[in-house]
Structures are given as structure tokens and as C-alpha cells.
Amino acid sequence: MQVLVRDNNVEQALRFLKKKLQREGVFREARLRERFEKPSEKRAREKAEGIRRVRKLARKKLERESGISAPRKARASGR
């Protein structure tokens, strides 16, 4: 992966690099590889991710078709 530094603006190049890495999933994969994940844990995580992904797509489709957003769940305050 390569990022060009323009006009000696290193901060901007670093922000761009972080965005690229985030999109590629490098940070997420590094966090997953910090410790061993049992196969049963991996299956449960992947199943939960799939369910979240399907629900998110359904919610977006509903928003697009109806033009209104679905009501949000009220969060319980922890304080």
C-alpha cells in the first residue's frame, strides 16, 4: 500500500493511510489475531456478523423503499 505525501503534509497523508487501512480491514484483523480464537467462537462470531449484515441491508432497503427510517431502540442508561 502506498500513500503520497503532498506539500510535505505528513499529517494529511497519515489520515489518508489510516482510512485506507480501515477500509481494508487491517486493524480489525490485527485485533482478531491478538489471541487465539477457538473454532466454536469463530463460528459464533461469523454467524452474528452475518445476522448483523443482513439486518443492516434490510433496514437500508426499507429506508430506500419507504423513504422513512425505522424507529431506533431506546438504550437503557447505565448511570
TrEMBL record:
One of its GO terms (biological process) is translation. It comes from the Bacteria. Signal peptide: none annotated. Coiled coil: none annotated. Keywords: Ribonucleoprotein, Ribosomal protein. One of its GO terms (cellular component) is ribosome. InterPro entries: Ribosomal_bS21, Ribosomal_bS21_sf. One of its GO terms (molecular function) is structural constituent of ribosome. It holds the Pfam family Ribosomal_S21. Belongs to the bacterial ribosomal protein bS21 family. NCBIfam families: S21p. This is Small ribosomal subunit protein bS21. It comes from Rhizobium esperanzae. The gene is rpsU.
